[in-house]
Amino acid sequence: MVFYFTSSSVNSFPYAIYMGKNKYENEDLIKHDWPEDIWEVLMDCAHLVKASIIQGCHMNHVNVVYTPRSNLKKTADLDVGQIGFHRQKDVKIVIGEKKVNEILNQLEKTEVEWFPDPAAEKECRDREERSEKKAQIQEMKRRVKEEMKKREMVELRSYLPLMKVKNMSSNQDGNDSDESM
To answer: What contacts 163, CB < 8 A, 6 or more positions away?
Structure first.
């Protein structure tokens, strides 16, 4: 089960925030994520973490660690719910100081519970991307073919092939047959 929230705290543009119910569901979300998944609403995420974890409610502040998806490293020796990082310098930490009920209430109003299949969703999205790329390549090939035809037609209508030196002849040094006079 995945919880979806809609946050509009950044530039009044709605962002989708999602989190798994537990570490096993988060594991699937990380495994089948999309490359454009980024964390732009980190303070909202910090408030959600603080509110959804029993220990977080009793703590003065919580640390939310974030990094681009490409920096996540999952090896076989890591437990479920654990991840590593390729480059430590790309890891950032946001500290959620105190609970802001206004943000939490706004997020909780938009909460949607859903049972997705992350692998199927990612495969569908990847399939769409591949078909778009294929269409772009076909369009480019079509344009190149049209351009070649245009060049060929211009060449056929042009006199340039006739104006080559080997095709030209001159009557300067030719034998004149005007001696009959």
So the answer is: none
